[in-house]
Each structure stands twice: as structure tokens, then as C-alpha cells.
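Figure 6 in text form: structure in, sequence out.
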């Protein structure tokens, strides 16, 4: 299922986003170009991370602790419960249709907005001046759709002192490809709509795009006070299209305050700096996708597994010193999942299972590393996965981790 992977990626990116925000505040980054580049790379990392997790392209670090053993109730290790109360597989299956419905709704809204704005730009009348600038009666204030600059119908009569700062602002959007980044951020929010970082990231990128474009107007030696008054006039006639970068729709009050304070325009980043950021993206994604797993030697198939002592009462016991931070806390009874064919033929077996846990200790994924006997008709692999999904775990590392354990299927005498 892809939903557990997306949730896994969302949790990781939420923590990474919080760390990035904290670092930006600690080093007191004031250049909006630098901050915009950092958050753009964060956006790309969030989009690539699920693929890294799904394909297991990132390294997995070993942690050293023993291999837990799950056997039937007649020989269960002390300190485990008989049946887990929560079935994560069923929960994911129930959440899947809800996630898919909301995602399709948000993607559909984005697609309709893009289609409507594309039609509006198609019927707009181009102006005989450099760049793709068009006059449209479907916009109320200047806007940028991709690389197309749209001006309202009365722009033909604008004086130069009104038209030139507007074009300087919109051309800055075109040079920085702000429209495309806005669409990518909206697509990211549609996929990760359950993650508050996705919505915040979209808003923050748009705010930084407007700030850098306002700086371009001031850098072109236009009067910041006159331009602030122009923004205020445009704000009275906002556009309704959320897929276009509009000069008067986003964060107008803060932008006007910055212009009236006569804040010097920030220095734009060089192309080399941008490529360095792109080059740093790959190791950052790999590190974000890395996992931990338990280092546990597997016994040979010919070596019998020693029976565990009789179970103690199910009451919780304090964890002894040296208890691993990622551990099995409540194991399901393998006898409830004993394969019928194997039981009918009186065949015993075991499987080594590895599970991925989120930072709350909930199971995200499970897989069989080794099974004996390996014949598929006995069904020990599927039965071991069912035991894993019906068990409970603890993860005090507060980060996504993995662990291994053995599930032994033994016939009761």
C-alpha cells in the first residue's frame, strides 16, 4: 500500500521542515532569495522521498539488540499479551478511500483552475512589446500564468509610471518561474493534504515570490512609496484564479509595510549557487529516507529453537535495564494464524520478519526475510506477516525505525 509510505514520508518531512525552519531562524537569514531556494529544495525533497522509501534506495543502519521470539501460547516468552487490540492493516485499508477521495478532489480543483486560466490566456490579446504580455478582460489586476503576463482590459491606457513597475514585478515572476513552483507546491499539498507542512510550504513560497518580485521593482529604481500605493489600488480588485501569481492577491499588507520601510532589495543568487543547492538535494533525500534495523544473527534452519518458558500473567511489567528502544510489547498468538495445510500435515516452522515502525511505534510495513520450511503451500510466510500485523510494538527513539523478530509455529502436544 502506498498510503503508509506517504504517511511515513510526511512524518519525516514534517520533522525536517521544522529543523530547516529552526536553522533559518538561528542563522538569521534575511535574504528572501536564499530562503526561497531552501524551501524549494525542501519541496522537491518531499516529492522525491516517497519514491526513495518505496524503492528502498536509502541505506539502512544496524542497531544491536537480540532477536525477539514469538511462539504459541503454550510457550510464549514472559511479558507479552495474547492478542493485540489494534489491526494496522485494517486501519490502513479503511483510511485509503478517504485519502484517495480528498486527493482526487484537490487535484481536480487544481486541474480545473489551470484549464480555466489557460483558456483565459488563449483568448487574451497580445501587446506589441517584449515578453508574452496579453490584455484580458477576465482578470481584474495584473497576474502571471506560467510565463504569460496578463493585464486587465484598461491597461492599454495606463501611463508609463503605472505600467513599468507592474511589468517589472511580473517579469521577475517569469524569470524565477514562480508560477511553476506555485503549481508544484499545490500538487504537493494535494498529495500530502494531511501534512500541515505542505500547506504552509505553499503559502511561504508564494509570499517569498512576491517579496523577491517587489525587490525587483525597487531595484529598477521605481519609487517604493508610489508602488505601495499602486498595490493598494490593485488589492481592491483581486483575481479569483488561485493558479496565477497576482500582484495584489498575496500578503499585500506586509508587502506595503516593507516598501514603506524602504528595505533595500535583496541580492539575487547566482546560477552556480542554485546548482549547488540542487546537488545537495540528493544526499539530503537519501539521508531523510534512511532507516534503522535490528542487527540480529539468524539461526540456521537445522538448529532447533529452544522452547521459551511458560507465560506469566498479562499484567505489564517494568522494562528491565538495557531494554531496547525499539521492541515488541504485545505479541499475537501464532497458533491463531497457524496455516491449515501445515497443521493438517503436522509440519512446524518459523519465519524471520522485519517490520518498519513510525515514531509512535505503529507498524508501517512488514516483510519476511527467511522462512522454514520455504514451500509456499505451507503458508508460513503469510501467517508470520499476519502475526506481525496483529502485534504491538514500542518505539522510544521518536524516529522511524525497523526491527526483526522470529515467529515460531509449534504444534502443541
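Output sequence:
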Amino acid at each position: 500500500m502506498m498510503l503508509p509510505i506517504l504517511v511515513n514520508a510526511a512524518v519525516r518531512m514534517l520533522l525536517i521542515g521544522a529543523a530547516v525552519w529552526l536553522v533559518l531562524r538561528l542563522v538569521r537569514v534575511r535574504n528572501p532569495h536564499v530562503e526561497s531556494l531552501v524551501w524549494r529544495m525542501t519541496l522537491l525533497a518531499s516529492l522525491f522521498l516517497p519514491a526513495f522509501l518505496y524503492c528502498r534506495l536509502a541505506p539502512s543502519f544496524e542497531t544491536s539488540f537480540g532477536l525477539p521470539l514469538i511462539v504459541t501460547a503454550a510457550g510464549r516468552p514472559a511479558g507479552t499479551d495474547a492478542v493485540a487490540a489494534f489491526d494496522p492493516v485494517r486501519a490502513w485499508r479503511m483510511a485509503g478511500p478517504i485519502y484517495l477521495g480528498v486527493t482526487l478532489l484537490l487535484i481536480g480543483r487544481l486541474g480545473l483552475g489551470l484549464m480555466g486560466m489557460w483558456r483565459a490566456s488563449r483568448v487574451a490579446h497580445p501587446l506589441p512589446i517584449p515578453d508574452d504580455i496579453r490584455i484580458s478582460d477576465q482578470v481584474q489586476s495584473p497576474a502571471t500564468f506560467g510565463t504569460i503576463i496578463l493585464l486587465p482590459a484598461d491597461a492599454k491606457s495606463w501611463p508609463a509610471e503605472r505600467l513599468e513597475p507592474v511589468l517589472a514585478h511580473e517579469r521577475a515572476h517569469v524569470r524565477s518561474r514562480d508560477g511553476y513552483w506555485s503549481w508544484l507546491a499545490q500538487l504537493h499539498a494535494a498529495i500530502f493534504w494531511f501534512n500541515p507542512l505542505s500547506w504552509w510550504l505553499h503559502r511561504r513560497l508564494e509570499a517569498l515570490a512576491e517579496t523577491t518580485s517587489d525587490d525587483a521593482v525597487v531595484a529598477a529604481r521605481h519609487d517604493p512609496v508610489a508602488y505601495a500605493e499602486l498595490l493598494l489600488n490593485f488589492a481592491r480588485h483581486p483575481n479569483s484564479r488561485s493558479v496565477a501569481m497576482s500582484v495584489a492577491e498575496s500578503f499585500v499588507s506586509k508587502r506595503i509595510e516593507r516598501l514603506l520601510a524602504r528595505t533595500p532589495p535583496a541580492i539575487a543568487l547566482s546560477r552556480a549557487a542554485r546548482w549547488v543547492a540542487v546537488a545537495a538535494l540528493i544526499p539530503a533525500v537519501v539521508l531523510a529516507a534512511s532507516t534503522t534495523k535490528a542487527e540480529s544473527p539468524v539461526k540456521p534452519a537445522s538448529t532447533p529453537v529452544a522452547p521459551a518458558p511458560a507465560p506469566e500473567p498479562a499484567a505489564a511489567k517494568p522494562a528491565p535495564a538495557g531494554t531496547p528502544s525499539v521492541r515488541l510489547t504485545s505479541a499475537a498468538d501464532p497458533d491463531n494464524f497457524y496455516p491449515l495445510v501445515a497443521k493438517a500435515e503436522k509440519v512446524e516452522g518459523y519465519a524471520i520478519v522485519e517490520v518498519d515502525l513510525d515514531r509512535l511505534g505503529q507498524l508501517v510495513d512488514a516483510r519476511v526475510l527467511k522462512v522454514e520450511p520455504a514451500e509456499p503451500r505451507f503458508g508460513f510466510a503469510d501467517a508470520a506477516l499476519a502475526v506481525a500485523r496483529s502485534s504491538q510494538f514500542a518505539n522510544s527513539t521518536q524516529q522511524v525505525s525497523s526491527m526483526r523478530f522470529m515467529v515460531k509455529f509449534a504444534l502443541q502436544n
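Caption detail: The first strand starts at residue 60 and ends at 64.
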